[in-house]
Amino acid sequence: MRRKNASELPFSVKPLRSVPELEDKLSEPSPGVIEAMSRLDGDLLILGVGGKMGPSLAQLAVRAIAASGVERRVIAVSSFSTKGLRKRLESMDIETIQGDLLEPGVLESLPDVPNVIYMVGRKFGSTGAEWLTWATNVHLSALVAQRFKDSRIVAFSSGNVYPLEQVLSGGSTESTEPDPVGEYAITCLGRERLFEHFSRRNGTNMLLLRLNYAAELRYGVIVDIALQVWNENPIDLTMGHLNCVWQGYANSVALQGLGIADSPPRVLNLTGPELVSIRWAATRLGTLMNKKPAFVGQEAGAALLSNATACHRLFGYPQVSLDTLIEWVAHWVMNSGELLDKPTHYETRNGRF
Is 71 exposed, middle or buried (0-12, 13-18, 19+ CB in 10 A)? Predict the structure, then answer.
């Protein structure tokens, strides 16, 4: 099969061609985020900013605050193991504090701030180092909840707290009883329970965001599938369906969520509106890439799925559609765009990460 160049392929949206262009799009504030930042009282503290989502969330907050015409500090905390990240954030007028939040005295040294976004979490590498996953996901949440008992807290959780759902069910809603599969997912529920405990005890307003697969062009489930298609590797269909959402939308919801935090904590599923078929997504990517995907296995009747209708009613739909994301990712992968090399392992059904 002759490999077509990008100009011959059926793309319908303008591609993103560089990391700066991507990060600009990820941190583009919506009117809702700008309004939320204008109404926010006090400064913002982001704990665990060094992960995949944190830098763009911090940049989004700074841009929204500037657009709202108010003055607020954005303070970002991380161990800053990624080279150059601290300097890059500081160049955006984001204050930084370096430290391991599990180390004695670090939490106590942080400034008192009325608004906290909690992004700390450990997933991959949990199997074999379960002790560290429990310390990071459970013990630390209790310490943070006590340290910032007088703040409002938005904490990222995971849709992994839910059981596998029948595909035709539409996915777990916030009223679905948690039934986590595997030790990592159990620690995610433990994090939620400890936040809830201290919210109820201290009256701390909180929002727990059960996120299923934030995605952009350098990582995420669409990137995982695109790489398999592009490299002509067979795609396992057993976990035949999933949810994902544009990372910029997930960050927007987190910032707007400070305004709806409550005690006991409010829980909100955070993902896109589509039930994504792996077979369909791979076929669509194959059309864009001029590749024919190879599949193994058959779709199971159940998958890890969340229903985020409540989130969409509050904050609208993602500003980047699933098909736009697929086109962007296809172009990015075909043109050797920078990747984070952090696969999601969406295929995992036994909860072992």
Answer: exposed
Residues contacting 234, CB < 8 A, separation 6+: 228, 294, 295, 296
**Over the stretch 261-281, which tens digit does the pLDDT of each residue have?**
999 999 999 999 999 999 999
* Three-state DSSP state, 335: coil
Summarised one tens digit per residue, pLDDT across range 207-253 is: 999 999 999 999 999 999 999 999 999 999 999 999 999 999 999 99
Strand 276-277 vs strand 235-236: parallel, antiparallel, or unpaired? unpaired
Reference 285, options 349, 347, 221; nearest CA is 221
Per-residue pLDDT of 121-155, as tens digits, reads 887 666 778 889 999 999 999 999 999 999 999 99
- Displacement of CA 161 from its chain's centroid (Å): 15
What kind and span of H or E run contains 333?
A: helix 322-334
d(CA 263, CA 266): 7
First to last CA, the chain: 37
Q: Which two tokens stand for residue 339?
A: 């990747």
Q: How far is Cα 180 from Cα 164, in angstroms, rounded to an integer?
A: 9
Q: Which two tokens stand for residue 144?
A: 């943070």
Q: Using CB atoms within 10 A of its CB, is residue 168 exposed (0-12), middle (13-18) or buried (19+)? A: exposed
Distance of CA 331 to the CA centre of its chain: 22
Position 7 pLDDT exceeds 80: no
Sign of CA dihedral 279, 285, 288, 289: negative
Residues linked to residue 180 through DSSP beta bridges, in sequence order: none
For residues 101 and 144, the answer to whether their CB atoms sit within 8 Å is: yes
At residue 128, the pLDDT reads: 79
The two structure tokens encoding residue 322: 């699933």
Select 6-334's CATH number: 3.90.580.10, 3.60.20.10, 3.40.50.720, 1.10.820.10.
3.40.50.720
The span from the CA of 187 to the CA of 169, in Å, is 26
